[in-house]
């Protein structure tokens, strides 16, 4: 028999609640090598992220990556760090607060919302413990990755499963697998682009950039590539773009293996050389701005494009706290919680009054 961690006794008198856990990737606690190293170690030790044999990878990671990469990326992180902290974390916190507020305004104050990070803090385990302690017997896990991939969404669910395995009194679990073609999400993206065009003018071409993954994951059945292409197509359709007016490409290549193509760097050079004029770039795979958008795309991408001969370059910010996105997130959450949300009639059935009939329970409440 496994031994489980101690848990507080079941509370017969406590109303059951619903928890929503937004989960994003994670980010270092500070923009310096000492904080980046343990984050990268945890991230890059995940076998869902780097799929090469553990013994071989362990040597590569500890010999060639962890001694050098944290120093290199510290300067990059520093260039995008906000006064409140890492952009990814700042936006994720804002999103969880706004979602809680919007659900409350729509009469669902029984829903608690927390956020967690797959790597770093606050951990999925700590936040699941917190929601459980607050009385959540139902839990929706919402990885903040619009396009499912094994290296992102699946590893979140793996971790949730690992935590559940330590619980005696487990909550019911629902998960959001992918929302790459969710109507609200697509409309929020299109709204973000249009809003940008209205205030800053419109470019000659739109680059739709997604985070890459190794090419072999596509060959092994990961749907990520297909989902990115579909998001790109739906966004272009929503914006009434002809095929010649946009390009989908993949950024952030890591390591020597082939990744999904076309690569963003090659695409920027090609578009720059072709005298495209003004290029606008949007990153629909990230719902929150982060290192990969604010540094790699907004700063490095601009240099690449201008050096290749491009005239002007605009990075369109991610969805962050835009109202259309919070609206879409609220709608997505409510859809996934269907049948779980309380109505006036069902509220009393969700208390744990095990010895009382419904009528007695109602009477006892008055
Ligand atoms: C949006 C989806 C993401 C996918 C898919 C993804 C795959 C993936 N990433 C790496 C390696 C690194 N990614 C890094 C940063 C990073 N990646 C994502 C998202 C996806 N990654 C985000 C949101 C961020 C930014 C984090 C932040 O703090 O702002 C990094 C760290 C930075 C660096 O050292 O360059 C690495 C490393 C792999 C190997 C991979 C797929 C297998
Ligand atoms: Fe990444
Ligand atoms: Fe495909």
Automatic annotation (TrEMBL):
<dbReference type="Pfam" id="PF00762">
    <property type="entry name" value="Ferrochelatase"/>
</dbReference>
<dbReference type="InterPro" id="IPR019772">
    <property type="entry name" value="Ferrochelatase_AS"/>
</dbReference>
<keyword id="KW-0350">Heme biosynthesis</keyword>
<comment type="similarity">
    <text>Belongs to the ferrochelatase family.</text>
</comment>
<dbReference type="InterPro" id="IPR033644">
    <property type="entry name" value="Ferrochelatase_C"/>
</dbReference>
<protein>
    <recommendedName>
        <fullName>Ferrochelatase</fullName>
        <ecNumber>4.98.1.1</ecNumber>
    </recommendedName>
</protein>
<keyword id="KW-0963">Cytoplasm</keyword>
<keyword id="KW-0456">Lyase</keyword>
<comment type="pathway">
    <text>Porphyrin-containing compound metabolism; protoheme biosynthesis; protoheme from protoporphyrin-IX: step 1/1.</text>
</comment>
<keyword id="KW-0627">Porphyrin biosynthesis</keyword>
<dbReference type="InterPro" id="IPR001015">
    <property type="entry name" value="Ferrochelatase"/>
</dbReference>
<feature type="binding site">
    <location>
        <position position="292"/>
    </location>
    <ligand>
        <name>Fe(2+)</name>
    </ligand>
</feature>
<comment type="function">
    <text>Catalyzes the ferrous insertion into protoporphyrin IX.</text>
</comment>
<feature type="binding site">
    <location>
        <position position="211"/>
    </location>
    <ligand>
        <name>Fe(2+)</name>
    </ligand>
</feature>
<keyword id="KW-0408">Iron</keyword>
<keyword id="KW-0479">Metal-binding</keyword>
<dbReference type="InterPro" id="IPR033659">
    <property type="entry name" value="Ferrochelatase_N"/>
</dbReference>
């Amino acid at each position: 028999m496994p031994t489980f961690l101690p848990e507080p006794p079941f509370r017969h008198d406590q109303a059951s609640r619903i928890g929503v856990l937004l989960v994003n990737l994670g980010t270092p606690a500070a923009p310096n090598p000492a904080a980046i190293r343990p984050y990268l170690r945890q991230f890059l030790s995940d076998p869902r992220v780097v799929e090469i044999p553990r013994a071989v990878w362990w040597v590569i990671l500890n010999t060639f990556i962890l001694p050098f990469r944290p120093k290199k990326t510290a300067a990059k992180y520093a260039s995008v760090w906000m006064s409140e902290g890492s952009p990814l974390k700042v936006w994720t916190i804002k999103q969880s607060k706004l979602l809680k507020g919007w659900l409350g305004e729509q009469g669902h104050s029984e829903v608690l919302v927390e956020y967690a990070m797959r790597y770093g803090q606050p951990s999925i385990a700590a936040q699941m413990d917190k929601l459980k302690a607050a009385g959540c017997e139902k839990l929706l896990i919402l990885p903040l990755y619009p396009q499912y991939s094994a290296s992102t969404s699946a590893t979140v669910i793996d971790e949730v499963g690992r935590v559940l395995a330590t619980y005696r009194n487990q909550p019911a679990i629902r998960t959001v697998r992918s929302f790459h073609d969710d109507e609200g999400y697509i409309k929020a993206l299109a709204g973000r682009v249009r809003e940008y065009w209205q205030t800053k003018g419109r470019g000659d071409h739109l680059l739709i950039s997604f985070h890459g993954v190794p090419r072999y994951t596509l060959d092994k059945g990961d749907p990520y590539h297909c989902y990115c292409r579909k998001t790109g197509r739906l966004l272009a359709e929503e914006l009434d773009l002809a095929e010649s007016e946009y390009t989908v490409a993949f950024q952030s290549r890591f390591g020597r293996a082939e990744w999904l193509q076309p690569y963003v760097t090659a695409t920027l050079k090609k578009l720059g050389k072709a005298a495209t004029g003004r290029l606008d770039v949007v990153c629909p795979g990230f719902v929150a701005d982060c290192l990969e958008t604010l540094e790699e795309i907004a700063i490095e991408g601009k240099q690449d494009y201008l050096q290749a001969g491009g005239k002007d370059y605009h990075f369109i910010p991610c969805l962050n706290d835009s109202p259309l996105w919070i609206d879409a997130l609220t709608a997505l959450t409510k859809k996934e919680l269907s049948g779980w949300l309380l109505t006036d009639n069902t509220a009393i059935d969700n208390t744990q009054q095990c010895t009382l009939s419904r009528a007695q329970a109602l009477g006892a409440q008055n």
